């Protein structure tokens, strides 16, 4: 039917790719402010529990189905079907996943484009091109269009090179750089006045907030978005894992890396915000909460960097490089979902599939840029709050209700022969069958 499938060549390569998908704007931007405005360490505590008890089992469902079928999301789900009804259901879920992830990419690319524009801002100022710098940091359709196109070109370039030469190679380069930049920035910000107040706001728990259901709901939503669940991303990455790998172990490493980097990002963002406060930058919004939306990244932090003089130029460069890297390793995992389908099921050459699908998504993105106010928020809400949780539910149904237990066990046994007696297989089926679907429904109807 098509060319031989790609495969990750090492455990490290897979971990970097999957952690790269998981670690994105959601971790560096969403998680820290969510934590600070929801009771600090109390939220962190809820998040850690939910991530491991609910998101990790759902992640495993995708990885196991993917590696079992060794195919894109549509074909993989169809291979589990037991009759015409479930076959049809598989087709519907697979396609909804492809469409959802394409729309997620279409808004993600716009925001990632801002990160690239802000990366060039300190360079322009260093070269004395203040007019250019002002243009780069002012919201406008032309700037947004150019930078989202640039971002999509990078994404298409990596995906057209394939699993090994594209995804694995770039994730293995970019993710270690991300960790190094993050650690250096944290160390630097810790030396500045006000940083410790931020750390306190981040980490001192307000346990009374745990009784608040909205806290649990946002922790759960954060965990699902952050682990890239529900749209077939992890399923497709799972399909490129060697049969010799121990799935429960590498799945938990991915979850640990994702959570670990989110927690670290909090140690950068919150202290940085309080350092900004210390230098006279406004960090609270009209309701008295921390500024968390676009304002945080495009006004609070740049204002802070602006107070740092020459050092600020390098800090700004490092910070927006960090954001761009985090975005790019996530966006490639999104584009891979429709591309894998085009390559395997429609027989299109990978390069062509990447260019065609990437161009369509770029056009959707451009349409959103030119109709920003009515469309942007709507696309975010429909994809991440409505479609993604329901699809997550559907993946759990496939793994635990449609597929049989023996099939799952067979798949885990490859690479982990002792699986049947391990803790994972004692708990996981129950979770995916009952706990995850129920939890997703509860969150959904909130
Ligand atoms: N997890 C990424 C983040 O935290 C975003 C992401 C990548 C994603 N792939 C996805 C979100 C698929 C939803 C679905 O930013």
Structure overview:
This protein is mainly alpha-helical and 446 residues long. It has one domain (13-445): Amino acid/polyamine transporter I (Up-down Bundle), CATH 1.20.1740.10. Helices cover 80% and strands 0% of the residues. It has 18 helices and no strands. Helix 3 (41-69) crosses helix 16 (372-402), helix 5 runs antiparallel to helix 6 (130-137) and helix 15 (350-370) packs across helix 16 (372-402). It binds tryptophan. Tryptophan binds at residues 21-22, 24-27, 101, 104, 225-226, 228, 231, 233, 330, 333-334.
Primary descriptors:
446 residues, mainly alpha, Amino acid/polyamine transporter I, 18 helices, 80% helix, 0% strand, binds tryptophan
Task: Please outline the helices and strands.
Blueprint: H1 11-22, H2 25-37, H3 41-69, H4 73-80, H5 84-126, H6 130-137, H7 141-160, H8 162-190, H9 195-203, H10 213-226, H11 233-238, H12 247-278, H13 294-306, H14 310-345, H15 350-370, H16 372-402, H17 405-413, H18 423-445
Helix pairs in contact: 1-8, 1-12, 1-14, 2-10, 2-12, 3-4, 3-10, 3-12, 3-16, 3-18, 4-5, 5-6, 5-7, 5-14, 5-15, 5-16, 7-8, 7-14, 7-15, 8-12, 8-14, 9-12, 12-13, 13-14, 14-15, 15-16, 16-18
The protein binds tryptophan.
Tryptophan binds at residues 21-22, 24-27, 101, 104, 225-226, 228, 231, 233, 330, 333-334.
Mean pLDDT: 92
Query: Over the alpha carbons, how many angstroms does the gyration radius reach?
Result: 21 Å
How many helices? The count is 18
Low-confidence stretches: none
N-C termini distance? 44 Å
Structural class: mainly alpha
What is the CATH-assigned architecture?
Up-down Bundle
CATH superfamily: Amino acid/polyamine transporter I
Q: Find the count of extended strands (DSSP E, 2+ residues).
A: 0
How many structural domains does the protein architecture include? 1
Order of helices and strands: HHHHHHHHHHHHHHHHHH
Query: Main sheet, how many strands, which sense, barrel?
Result: none
Say what the CATH topology is.
Answer: Amino acid/polyamine transporter I
So what's the CATH class? Mainly Alpha
Oligomer: single chain
Q: Could you say which small molecules are bound to this protein?
A: tryptophan
The portion of residues forming beta strands comes to under 5%
Fraction of residues in H or I helices: over 70%
Form type:
globular
């Amino acid at each position: 039917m098509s060319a031989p499938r790609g495969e990750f060549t090492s455990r490290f390569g897979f971990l970097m790719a999957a952690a790269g998908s998981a670690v994105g704007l959601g971790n560096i931007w969403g998680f820290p402010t969510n934590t600070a405005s929801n009771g600090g360490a109390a939220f962190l505590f809820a998040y850690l529990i939910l991530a491991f008890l609910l998101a990790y089992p759902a992640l495993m469902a995708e990885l196991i189905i993917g590696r079992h079928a060794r195919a894109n999301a549509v074909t993989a789900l169809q291979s589990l079907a037991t009759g015409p009804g479930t076959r049809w259901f598989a087709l519907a879920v697979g396609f909804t996943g492809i469409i959802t992830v394409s729309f997620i990419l279409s808004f993600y690319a716009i925001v990632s484009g801002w990160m690239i524009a802000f990366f060039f801002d300190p360079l322009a100022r260093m070269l004395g091109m203040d007019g250019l710098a002002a243009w780069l940091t002012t919201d406008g359709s032309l700037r947004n269009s150019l930078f989202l196109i640039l971002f999509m070109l990078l994404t298409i370039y990596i995906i057209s090179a394939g699993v090994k030469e594209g995804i694995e190679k770039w994730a293995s380069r970019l993710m270690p750089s991300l960790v190094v930049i993050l650690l250096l920035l944290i160390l630097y910000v810790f030396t500045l006045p006000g940083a410790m107040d931020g750390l306190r706001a981040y980490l001192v728990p307000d346990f009374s907030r745990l009784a608040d259901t909205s806290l649990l709901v946002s922790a759960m939503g954060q965990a699902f978005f952050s682990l890239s669940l529900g749209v077939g991303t992890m399923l497709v990455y799972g399909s490129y894992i060697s049969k010799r790998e121990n799935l429960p172990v590498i799945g938990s490493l991915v979850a640990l890396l994702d959570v670990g980097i989110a927690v670290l990002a909090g140690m950068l963002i919150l202290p940085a915000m309080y350092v900004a406060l210390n230098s006279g930058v406004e960090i609270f919004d009209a309701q008295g909460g921390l500024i968390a939306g676009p304002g945080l990244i495009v006004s609070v932090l740049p204002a802070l960097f602006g107070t740092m003089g020459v050092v600020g130029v390098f800090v700004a460069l490092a910070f927006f490089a960090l954001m761009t890297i985090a975005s790019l390793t996530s966006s490639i995992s999104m584009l891979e979902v429709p591309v894998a389908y085009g390559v395997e099921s429609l027989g299109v050459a990978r390069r062509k599939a990447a260019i065609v699908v990437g161009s369509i998504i770029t056009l959707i993105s451009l349409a959103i840029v030119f109709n920003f106010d009515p469309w942007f928020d709507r696309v975010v809400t429909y994809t991440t709050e409505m479609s993604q949780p329901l699809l997550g539910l559907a993946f759990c149904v496939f793994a635990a209700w449609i597929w049989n237990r023996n099939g799952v066990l067979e798949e885990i046994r490859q690479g982990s022969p002792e699986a049947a007696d391990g803790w994972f297989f004692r708990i996981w089926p129950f979770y995916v069958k009952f706990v995850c679907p129920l939890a997703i429904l509860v969150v959904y109807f909130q």
